[in-house]
Amino acid sequence: MEESEAAAKTETVDSKDVKDSSETLTNDATGEVSSKSGSVCKTSEETEAKYMRLKLFDKVMQKSLERFIQHASFNRFASTFRPLYKKNPQRMESIHKQFIEELQGAIKDDINRLIEEGQLEFKLNELDKLEKATKNNPNPVWRPSGIPEQDFCSFLMPYYQKQEAYLRLELKKIQAENAALAQRVQTGRESITQTEHHISTAVEEWKASVTEFERMASSLCPADVFD
User: Fold this and answer.
1) Residue 144: phi, psi to the nearest 5?
2) pTM beyond 0.90
3) Looking at CB atoms within 10 Å, which of 57, 63, 196, 224 has the fewest?
């Protein structure tokens, strides 16, 4: 009887441990899945926001194109080419339809080319970065004051101040280099002066030695001895 009760308790403890471990694994898996799903949702939201901007841009371009095409209506087209329209209205309508299709295609190609050359998708990503940066920046962003001269000066003054600081730094470098070169030139001149002094001194000593040699030679060998 006691053995059966002990076995029953052991089975209860084992089943409880298995249940706890299964619950732990389930919670871990749920947390991992939730974190992954959160990152996926975040990435999908960013991608959706980016594509929403592209869709908005496409919608704006489409509306602009439609308004532009409205100015090239068939009535205006027919009034421009009225003699041809009177001769063959169906043919004129077909020509207008073909003209509108080719015009729309050419404009769309130009817009796509501008999007590729202007790197619109890259610019939209930069816009996202700027938007995130402004969220973390408590300082108010720049807004135009309504006075073009003041706004223009406020935009250019920091640039000119940076340029002025850069030029001042370069001027100091050039002045230091000129001072070093002037010092080297002065040292060279002093060296040349010292060399000239040494040469002149050596020449004077040589002249003096020659004069002394001639005097000694004349004293040792008088001229009347050879007469």
Assistant:
1) -65, 140
2) no
3) 224
